[in-house]
Amino acid sequence: xxxxxxxxxxxxxxxxxxxxxxxxxxxxxxxxxxxxxxxxxxxxxxxxxxxxxxxxxxxxxxxxxxxxxxxxxxxxxxxxxxxxxxxxxxxxxxxxxxxxxxxxxxxxxxxxxxxxxxxxxxxxxxxxxxxxxxxxxxxxxxxxxxxxxxxxxxxxxxxxxxxxxxxxxxxxxxxxxxxxxxxxxxxxxxxxxxxxxxxxxxxxxxxxxxxxxxxxxxxxxxxxxxxxxxxxxxxxxxxxxxxxxxxxxxxxxxxxxxxxxxxxxxxxxxxxxxxxxxxxxx
Length: 282
Known about the structure:
mainly alpha, two-stranded parallel ribbon, 12 helices, 2 strands
């Protein structure tokens, strides 16, 4: 995969194309191979090869713009020849569970609250979930160490935030780095924590409203407070499409691109095509 199609917002059009081509069966198989324990990955090479070959077939016969088809097909052909080099398998399946991935947004929200209120969190309590707590704590510890390291090194922080991968999330990431909570997590049973019980009520009310549009009588002020002051974030096709459109608005009009810039771009494309040809993937 060409570097700029993976580490910049150009990845969003690729994901959008794949979303339009893959069906439920291919998505389930992709997920299965993503969360298979790494110790078993050696036995799954055939499955990885079959999955990528099936996706490649859809890319080649689907209505895909020419350059996107070329980029995707190159990567998929490489994967079918070298399934052992693909990034499938994980140390723990729950590391990719919604409870774990979503917890990153909780950390970001805590940092944002500390920033706007200019206060420090006195404590952070997480509901006991035997299946997910280990991965949640690990995620929190990694974020904490990264933030502490970058706060203490201005040059590294500037380089980290300047990376093209941060486009569209640079301000939120800067807040996370500068204001990440310094308190460690406490895992507690909800039956022993008044704060967790109140949180459960908020979540129940909001979930009911999102699913049905109904508001429990008497709880209107609480729900209104959440909707007015809360934050919504997540990983979805719509969110990625929004980030791509925001990035696209920053790009110059095609007519404003100079001949020199086009020549530089064409040389980079030609060089990449030469490297792919040398791999003899076809």
